[in-house]
Write a structure and sequence with these properties.
The structure is a homodimer.
Chain A lengths: L1 H13 L24 E5 L7 E8 L8 E5 L8 H7 L3 E3 L6 E3 L9 E5 L9 E2 L5 E3 H18 L8 E6 L2 H14 L7 E7 L17 H9 L5 H14 L5 H14 L53 H7 L2 H6 L16 E3 L9 H6 L3 E7 L7 H15 L3 E9 L5 E8 L2 E6 L6 H4 L1 H12 L8
Parallel strand pairs in A: 3-6, 3-9, 8-11, 9-10, 10-12, 12-15
Antiparallel strand pairs in A: 1-2, 2-6, 2-7, 4-5, 13-14, 14-15
GO molecular function, one term (chains A, B): serine-type carboxypeptidase activity
Organism (chains A, B): Paramecium tetraurelia
Enzyme class (chains A, B): hydrolase
Chain lengths: 458, 458
């Protein structure tokens, strides 16, 4: 009786769908250190009724704050990693299946929405199980997914929307923003995008970039994984070898692999070059052992339904493959077993998303590009390259010169640089997953960007 | 009675001077997790009888192992930092005055000798209190100090000697080895030197290098403290500005300081750019508060009897300024109050020590040059520069190509590169004080170098 009453009262306050409300009486059972409302269910777009996007939504008590849609990358990786490892209200203590309160949850200043996309990822599914898609189809479907969100939660229609994420979400986000712009009649109040260690330029993450991933080589040389001698040789052949499959360039690539031994047997965490390669036994509650992908120079090559190399996944598999927890999150029986990353039949646009920036900037969409500065997967070197290119091509004035910024205790937090229409923030000693590695710095960064608070200088 | 007996039995086994034996019954009182013999006292050379070098010696039970003399740098910094923070048998738990056993003590494979040098440093003193010295005088006096060690501990005369240390010990060590070579009649069995983040080339640590410390700029640019734009500008003016005081170069240096704000008010640990700037209150047991030196681009500029910026010193001041502990270490009343670093009247050789390498190598002295790869004070960039120069000038063949090595758990530990007569080892994610930051890697490195054990490859 009490239970029914609470459901009614919560749904009355938040107007959210009662069927998706996560039972708050179970917080204690699952040792979740949280005392607010959360929803978990599916966004089921009218236009593509065979698509079922699983989402988790943590509304903030203060209704007028912005909504942040968070997307993880891959393609094929679940945004529940963002929710439960990075910037959600409760996250795992590193390398354990124990939840702790996230003091630096982005939910403290926003309504946080995590969606598993495209369908086939995590608990999201398509009726026929077909996961064939592309950048453009994903963007179109993500747009329908957003409309479905607003249909389910119409009271957030007037809130500002920020779309955030990392890695291949560097493609999902601008392509989705582009669809929103093109469909202005939907009146989605898109205000900004925040992309961490994201794929943007054609020289990053595309199939063609892999022939000779120059910015990764430069990053590894900067951090002394590659000798000075070889670095100079790479520099000489850069112009010739980028996007080039010819034998000479492939031989040079092979020399780099030999010198770095990154496809070898030792443990090296490509997502944080100074971090530990994290490989404890990861088991489901049923005792099934989940294999890690082998260490590779480019981890995107080998995400095949396994755990990406060196990743922290103990807590995720413990909870998200638990039948009780699955019920608790209102997961449909049609949803597959959850995996951190799934193999999709995915076609990438060889232009990546760099070409969309002029249009997005012209619309006044705020842009934060952030970079964990010790990530070897989508490294800071490539990001700086394309921002400089963009500045030059569009003749954008510098608003803030490159300078350090710092955290509350005055510890150096990284550097920033602002050109007209785009803020770049590096996060010192953070890898590919910035809000996981440097929670306080990531919190300050996202907060200050959204609310136009100047970053501490001195 | 039991006490007298133990003293006799220990001195009988080790033949060391009973007056310098540190009272083992007090280990428990001072919470020292150690059960072996240790000596603390003074080395008082015959040739310079007004010099009193304080030393701590931890002999190993196995008498035929090598002796390692460890020296910290500065000039002016105490080697007790090495003993109690880095590679001694018991060290402080970071940031606390609590001793713990050092699982990776170099004392496990050697007799460890720590000497505070030159006089004026730490507990070492000269009768007249005058601390005027130079590279050459220091080398000569360190040689006399070594003779005094062998007079005090003659049973180690036939053991192989390795001289190790970091930072400005990069000067103390080759200059001392040079004196040993020049005085071959003393029959000191010098076998090798091991230098971490050490001053070697004239472009590092000399007065003249400070006009335009190019390799620091390069290092900071590699790690994104400096913008790509400014980095390119520095690169263009490198040849002109190194060792050059002219206004244009000083202005460029000022631009770098402005962009990095490294002389600003925020906390940045120059000794480990990804580490915390460590500044808890440091107090003596009497409640005296010890001030930290202000954060500066070049911390060597401002060591004035204070704690170098961001350094861990809580335990050192707690113990080494404690009157009881001082008595326990057999410290003379003439010794000054202990300080981590002291200001000396010190004249540096503008040539540094690079010019000594051909001679030392010709004598077959083994050389290990190691580098914590995230140190901004004597960074890896400068070390690689002069090793490449040495290889070219002496036409030395490469013995091992640049390649990664790893620790026992297969985690990547850094890279190595061997030229005929010199082994270079980088230690990943270690700063200026390698054995403090990466104890296991430092242990493996020193052990493998001394005993000619190949470094793990796969």
């Amino acid at each position: 009786m009490q239970y029914i009453f609470l459901l009614i009262s919560l749904s009355a306050i938040f107007c959210g769908p009662p069927s998706d409300l996560v039972d708050p009486f179970q917080y204690e059972y699952f040792k979740i250190p949280y005392n607010k409302t959360m929803y978990s269910g599916y966004l089921e777009p009218e236009d593509i009724p065979d698509h079922h996007f699983h989402y988790i939504f943590y509304p903030n008590d203060k209704s007028d704050l912005p909504v942040i849609l968070w997307l993880n990358g891959g393609p094929g990786c679940s945004s529940l990693t963002g929710a439960m490892i990075e910037n959600g209200p409760f996250v795992f203590i590193g390398g354990t299946p124990i939840f702790e309160e996230n003091k630096y949850s982005w939910g403290k200043f926003a309504h946080m929405l995590y969606v598993e996309t495209p369908v086939g990822v995590g608990f999201s599914y398509k009726n026929d199980g077909n996961t064939t898609t592309s950048d453009d189809v994903t963007a179109q479907n993500n747009y329908y997914m957003l409309l479905a969100f607003y249909r389910k939660f119409p009271e957030y229609k007037n809130n500002e929307l920020y779309i955030a994420g990392e890695s291949y979400a560097g493609t999902y986000i601008p392509t989705l923003v582009n669809k929103i712009i093109d469909n202005s009649q939907s009146n989605i109040r898109i205000r900004g995008m925040m992309i961490g260690n994201g794929c943007t330029d054609a020289s990053e993450c595309t199939k063609e970039a892999k022939y000779f991933p120059y910015y990764k080589f430069q990053f590894l040389a900067n951090h002394n994984f590659i000798s000075q001698k070889l670095e100079e040789y790479i520099e000489i052949h850069k112009a010739k070898c980028q996007f080039n499959k010819e034998q000479f360039c492939q031989d040079l690539y092979q020399d780099i692999l030999t010198e770095t031994n990154l496809d070898g047997t030792y443990e090296y965490n490509p997502y944080n070059i100074y971090g530990t390669c994290f490989q404890p036994p990861v088991e489901t509650p049923q005792g099934e052992r989940i294999p890690y992908a082998k260490n590779k120079f480019d981890p995107f090559d080998i995400i095949q339904g396994h755990i990406p190399p060196c990743s922290d996944a103990v807590g995720l598999y413990h909870y998200l493959r638990d039948d009780e927890f699955r019920k608790y999150l209102n997961i449909h029986p049609q949803s597959d077993q959850w995996a951190k990353c799934q193999s999709l039949n995915y076609t990438k646009d060889p232009r990546a998303t760099y070409h969309l920036y002029p249009k997005i900037m012209a619309k006044g969409i705020k842009i934060l590009k952030f970079s964990g500065d010790v990530d070897g997967v989508v490294p800071i070197t490539g990001t700086i390259y394309w921002i400089e290119k963009l500045q030059k091509e569009l003749n954008l004035p510098t608003i803030q010169q490159w300078r350090p910024w710092f955290k509350s205790n005055k510890q150096n937090a990284g550097n920033l640089w602002e050109i007209d229409g785009l803020l770049f923030v590096s996060v010192r000693n953070a890898g590919h997953m910035v809000p996981a590695d440097q929670k306080e710095a990531a919190f300050i960064m996202a907060h200050n960007f959204i609310f136009d608070v100047p970053f501490s200088e001195e």
